[in-house]
Specification:
Elements: E1 3-10, E2 13-18, E3 24-28, E4 41-47, E5 50-56, H1 57-62, E6 78-85, E7 88-94, E8 96-103, E9 122-128, E10 131-136, H2 138-150
Parallel strand pairs: 2-10, 5-7
Antiparallel strand pairs: 1-2, 1-8, 3-6, 4-5, 6-7, 9-10
Length: 151
Amino acid sequence: MNRLYLFAHIGGTAVAISTNEVDAVVRLNELSVVPGVPSHVAGLAALRSRVLTIIDAAALVNAQQDKPGGALVRDGGSHAIVCEIGGHGYGIVVDRVDDIQTVDSTPLPICGRIDPAWQPYAQGVIESEGRPYFVVSLSSFLDSCLNAQAA
């Protein structure tokens, strides 16, 4: 089974995202900070006449409470993976984007212990060029956001 994946890093962790979920990868240069939102909501950005809610995935996974909104784009921009979930546009900020590749094998189950912060997000593991990547779904980051707000 061949699947196309986007390989990236979030909070220093290598991840693979099915390209079926990805609308685009963009460089963010300007964010509008929104007061009173959780720390993982970096702000709003305009993209081709669309307003995107920008989610800092590393802050969400690592529960970083001390990162102010807008800090992500201070040093020349950050990459965001643009997606549409539930009819809303989002940009999921990643540390870096490595590549897009076809993977011939299906994801393997996660064996062993992983950081508890990644348990809600990691769905399996695939290998590319001898390196393991957690298979994650962009919607899992948004599900986590909604669950945190409901609590």
